Every structure is written in C-alpha cells, then in structure tokens.
Amino acid sequence: MGTLFVGIILLAIISLICTSLIRDKKRGKCSCGGNCGSCAGCAGCHGDRK
After folding, report:
1. How far apart are CA 18 and CA 25, in angstroms?
2. Does residue 17 or residue 28 have the better pLDDT?
3. From the DSSP assignment, how many helices (H) and strands (E) are in the chain?
4. Where are the domains positioned within the chain?
C-alpha cells in the first residue's frame, strides 16, 4: 500500500514538472540558463529568435 502511495505522489510531481516545462516552452522561456557562448546546442534552443 505504501509503495502505491509513493508511486502516485512521484507521478504527480513528475506531471507537474512536465506541465511547467511545456508551459515555459510555449511562452518562449528558456530553461538552459542563457549562457549561449559555451553551449553546443544553442542553435536548437534559440534558433527561432536569431
């Protein structure tokens, strides 16, 4: 019973994190920290802004 309860709580937390990341992506926010000078994936993250 305890394992099920902990699993449900973890699933809820992961769902909230994913929802937050999706909302931020739709709003154009970046989750990388913004240091594009040392980022190899800058074009993939901010390609639409340049």
Report:
1. 11
2. 17
3. 2, 0
4. 2-46
